[in-house]
Please model this.
Amino acid sequence: MSLVVKIDAAWPGFRLRIDFAAEHGMTGVFGRSGAGKTSLLDVVAGVRKASRAFVKLNGDVLADTAGGIFVPVRRRRIGYVPQNLSLFPHLSVRRNLLYGSSDGDGGEPFSLAHVTELLEIAPLIEREITHLSGGELQRVALARALLSRPRLLLLDEPLASLDADLKARIIPFLRRIRDEFGIPTLYVSHDPMEMVALCQDVLVIELGEGRQLHAPGEIFEQRVETVYRFRASVGQCD
Amino acid sequence: MIRPEEWQVLRLTVVLAALSNLSILAPGLALAWVLARGDWPAKSLVETIVTLPLAMPPVATGLILLKLLGRRGVIGKYLHESLHFDIAFTWRAVVIAMAVMSFPLLVRTCRTAFAQVDPRLEQIARTLGASDPRVFFTITLPLARRGVVAGSLLAFARALGEFGATIMVAGNIPGRTSTLPLAIYHLVQLGQDAQAYRMMLISILITFAAVWLGERLVPRGKEGGP
Model:
């Protein structure tokens, strides 16, 4: 797989300049809130238009403003799990899961039975969305995206709304998704721990700019060093 | 309890208001959606034009309709001469007057309801492969249904009470264009006050039922009216 993204776009009060190519697996997108991480996912998914953008996935050009190409959102086959999950509140868990696949028999590994077993949500399937806990909602949203047989996954802060205990319990599920489905994934987070735990490469976005892929260990070490040096300089090492 | 001639007026009014409601539902929903979701240059102009019948004297709206639909009107002349089809002073004119006058209420209420549906849900539905019509009918409309039903009932209540535009373009022909409000006016003019009061009570009851139902269906503080 390969994902090539080039964006140079401005919206009122905000500019986004991204240029990277991801080769495989889970690619982290790291930065503070407001850095432009979600805008990047929106442009890749096609739900937000950029004045200048080029997106190529596995040789298919999905968007090329210079060449006048814009593949409609529904034809991109990109599984997007936004930060608020956007589960459909008026539909049952089953109807949410099957929204993008109609019969749930997309062939292994994308069958309803396999995905719900893998994410351990099979017992929830007849429930209403409004009756699920945070961790359950998160897994249902992941399953819904997977069942649409995506060619690319976009995960926006999947763990941000969960407490530390739940985070630790969801991370193995994310690893399972990464290893079993082999779908290239952009994983957005502001937490270096998640980057280290899940991603092979990390794109760092700062103030709407992101160009370079790093190894997650590199960023993490820098971070620790900075914190350590800061503490040393003010002389309070607890 | 209700006399035959009163039944007849009541039935005519309800049937014509229902017809008016049915005819504006699809275009009303479409326009409300475009106003809620779209972002285009002449939007505020269209909004103003749609709202106009709500603020204009109904008699003036009726006069415009008469000039369009009467036998010597722009559209009416053509229909009369080539198709021998009349609109003015028939039940059709009543339906059109009701439709024009209640359209703004439907559009404004539905627009508010659509605007309150999280656009993110619609976007995610699209990433899951849904076409625009499917997104509308499976996500937007179900989530806005309370507001849509409320707007429809409000428009229905408005149609039941339509007077000014109706009397201009449809006249007051007993059994054909004489709806509840016109019948009340007519009875008062004839000095038959007791009968007018009975009609008035009927009209209060039925309007009360429609508005009350509309209020019940909209959770307070969540979805507003126009």
About this structure: The domain at 4-217 of chain B is CATH 1.10.3720.10 (MetI-like fold). Chain B touches chain A at residues 118, 120-121, 123-131, 138-139, 142-143 (CB under 8 Å). The radius of gyration of chain B is 20 Å. Residues 221-226 of chain B have pLDDT under 50 and may be disordered.
